[in-house]
Amino acid sequence: MTEKEKKKIFIVSRKKRVKVERPKLKPGADKGLKRVFADIGVPEKAPFSPDPFQIKAIAAVEKADCLVTAPTGSGKTWIAEQAIAKIRETGGKAWYASPLKALSNSKYYEFCELFGAENVGILTGDRKENPDAPIIVGTTEILRNQLYDAMHYGETFATDFVVLDEAHFLGDADRGVVWEEIMIYLPERIPMLMLSATIGNARQIAEWLAFIRSKPCTVVEEKKRPVPLYSLFLHPSGTLFPLLSPKGRKGLHHKVLSYLDAKHPPVFGPAQHLPPMGEILQVLRKYDLLPAIFFLKSRADCDHALSLCEDNFINDLHRKDMIRDQIEDVIAKCPHVAKHRQRWQLEHLAVGAHHSGQLPAWKLLLEQLMTQGALDAIFATSTVAAGVNFPARSIVFLNSDRFNGVEFMPLTSTEFHQMTGRAGRRGMDQIGFAMAIPGKYMDIPMIAELVSSPPSDVLSQIRINFSMVLNLLLSHTPDRIEDLLKKSFAAYLIAKNPPKRGGKAVLSQSHRGLTQEFRRHLNFLKETGYVSEDGSLTEDGVWTSQLRVDQPLLIAEGFRQNVFPKDNPVLLAAIITAFVNERESDDRIAKELIPPELSKSFATMRQGLKEFIKLSILRKFTVRPFFFRPALAVYTWAKGEEDWEKTVQLSELDEGNLAMLILRTADNLRHIRNLSEVFPDAANTANEAIRLILRDPVISEYDG
User: Fold this and answer.
1) For 52-221, which CATH class?
2) Secondary structure of residue 96 in the 3-state scheme
3) Non-local CB neighbours of 241 within 8 Å, separated by 6+ positions
4) Cα–chain center distance at 643
5) Average pLDDT over residues 629-655
6) How large is the average pLDDT for residues 6-11?
């Protein structure tokens, strides 16, 4: 072996690090894997035949509500399609709700092909097409808002069947409240089909739904994966071992245990560095384990991983042409992609980085190429596991924790199963693989336990907010709202499992805690003039209820204090961005970069809301600070005087985050546009502001 073929490796001792020379990874596999690898291949095509759990679910949903839990790729969507088809046979209407706009867009196109484009509409905030169609696909927020409207106007909700895809989002800390509201508000006459791969307490949720909806909720469970999963361990030498003991025994494989018990186990390199990704791809390629999804800790790691794959050139000219053609197709609809910094790696190395810092069109391009089997690997943050539907033959773990937005926490069994659910492509693979790579942030024994752990329980995330209170007061008295809160999943759990003395954390989520929070919000709305003393909405309260955004009261107060630039779309977009932004920002900006009109408008807004914010804080309501830099970035973008790259640089955000900030600003502007009867000038200005900020590459024809 030549010196050029050697790479540095660090042997980690408890006392010191010793620097030695080590050859490149030498692909190898434990002999016990020979039989497993023999199963790799494409299954023979066979006529479709529904599984027993699918047939059972179809029969169940014809009589009552149904909650289906089955592994990713097992055919849950087929159940929904068949149920919708039966509803359509009798002239009925259906609503299909998913948590993500990308999923809704994908499902919309699938349903158009299946049921005919004239019969399908889509409602996601960004898109509103064929809204009176008998089949509507949309986000859960839109469905919840339509339920609010139906209650307000005393109308019959115009659907006969509702599908809630990814039902485990009921337990999502940020958005679970929307799912719970839908389940509480949905009229009992409308059957509900819930689909999820990962719910540990499905029967408990079904019992709660049966209690509040006065009708049975059938649980249909399928635990068998459509593509079996096998767990692997990659030794730093390049040799693959089974992660777990042979069948019939518990725990780690004895060779993995030997590695972990070694006094100075070899490692891939310094703890702060990524392992040699290109060499790892060579190991996976030798044993036909590609394509793969690598789950990494950060966006920076995902991007850096691409630079470690510089020798992974595509040899298959047909595949290279497929990737190039797909890229050119995207460029035609989203020209900005032509100069994407990672285009070369995608086009020549068949690898990509997928994370929230990427533009929507770029992420969609990666997903489509991966689904087509054109890529060798995607390096992704763990958020890719939540609902995005593109599989691989193997998934690779480099860490056993996950960033939850605040801190790194150990993976839960639900998160682990969401990730491993991507391993093994139905119809393309006979077996899928989950591979663990040892390192500083990897707890191998914990990963081994997660393999056989059941999904985590889904807990109630319901919380009171001003938008909820205002919208419920449109159609309910305060006393009736308190009765409605008794239907919450939190209240049900407390009733079934009363907390012991001192269980303050549990008690805070009880009905009493929800009622107290409701009363606190109600009293503040009375104090500020949005609700009258008898508990009904004032005129201001009625139009404020239509601001179904994160900070409805602050925006409403901005209108009441007349601090918004109602006749300037560029300024309005910038000012509303300050209400949307959730990130801390460095507002130290050179004076020559600050437009006087924006500085003046921003100061007017802050001064006009000063007393209201003081009162909010005094009453112990959280108010996010206003940052100028995000507003300046969107001002610059709306003005159209700087290109996208300079706007991104000015924002000090990743371009994906800036695009998301602009999309959320547009969503807030849409709600202002809906106030045309009360503020016609501002509504028209908001409409023009949306047009100015929603352009390539923030949104394109390609990503809908």
Assistant:
1) alpha beta
2) strand
3) 30, 32, 33, 232, 233, 234, 235, 253, 255, 256
4) 29
5) 96
6) 36
What is the predicted pLDDT for the residue at 513?
A: 84
Provide CB contacts within 8 A for 383, sequence distance 6+.
Answer: 355, 356
More confident residue, 269 or 85: 85
Rounded Cα gap, residues 15 and 576, in angstroms: 55
The continuous run of DSSP H or E covering 409 comes out as strand 408-410
| Domain positions in the chain | 3-43+227-315+373-452, 52-221, 462-537, 546-704
Q: What is the mean pLDDT of the chain?
A: 91
Geometric angle at alpha carbon 451, from 449 and 457, rounded to 5°: 85
Tokens of 273: 């560095």
pLDDT on residue 360: 87
User: Are 3-43+227-315+373-452 and 52-221 equal in CATH topology?
Assistant: yes
Looking at this protein, which amino acid is placed at residue 45? K
Task: With a cut of 70, say whether residue 558 has pLDDT above it.
Answer: yes
CATH architecture of 3-43+227-315+373-452: 3-Layer(aba) Sandwich (3.40)
- Residues 561-590 as b/e (b if ≥16 CB within 10 A, e otherwise) read bebbbbebbbbbbbbbbbbbbeeebeeeee
List Cα–Cα distances, 602 to 107, 555, 563, 594, 683, in angstroms: 41, 14, 9, 11, 20
Which pLDDT value is given to residue 505? Answer: 43
* CATH T-level assignment (fold) for domain 546-704: Sec63 N-terminal domain-like fold (1.10.3380)
Residue 38: both structure tokens together? 């023999």
Place of tokens 């663990």: 436
Which residues, at least 6 apart from 492, have a Cβ–Cβ distance to it below 8 Å?
Answer: 208, 211, 212
Alpha-carbon gap, residue 462 to 172, rounded angstroms: 10
DSSP 19-48: EEEEEPP--EE-GGGHHHHHT-SPPPP---
Q: Can you state the angle between helices 466-473 and 552-560, rounded to 10 degrees?
A: 70
Let me know if 132 is exposed, middle or buried by CB neighbors in 10 A (0-12, 13-18, 19+).
exposed
Choose among 590, 595, 579: nearest CA to 665.
579
Structure confidence at residue 508 (pLDDT): 44
Rounded mean pLDDT, 624-653: 96
Output 250 or 216, whichever has higher pLDDT.
Answer: 216
**How many other C-beta atoms lie within 10 A of the C-beta of residue 30?**
16
Token pair belonging to 300 = 């920076």
Higher-scoring residue by pLDDT: 22, 659: 659
Instruction: Say whether pLDDT at 3 is over 80.
Output: no
Residue count of the chain, please give it. 704
Residue 693 has pLDDT above 90, yes or no: yes
Global pTM reads 0.90
- Through-space distance between the first and last CA atoms of the chain, rounded to whole angstroms: 53
Residue bearing tokens 């009925």: 92
Q: Under 8 Å CB-to-CB from 619, ≥6 apart: which residues? A: 520, 524, 527
Kindly give, in sequence order, each residue whose CB lies less than 8 Å from that of residue 668, ignoring residues fewer than 6 positions away. Answer: 549, 555, 576, 579, 580
Average pLDDT of the segment spanning 310-323:
93
* 72-to-420, 422, 455, 507 alpha-carbon distances in Å: 9, 7, 13, 35
- Residue pair 292/260 in contact (Cβ under 8 Å)? The answer is no
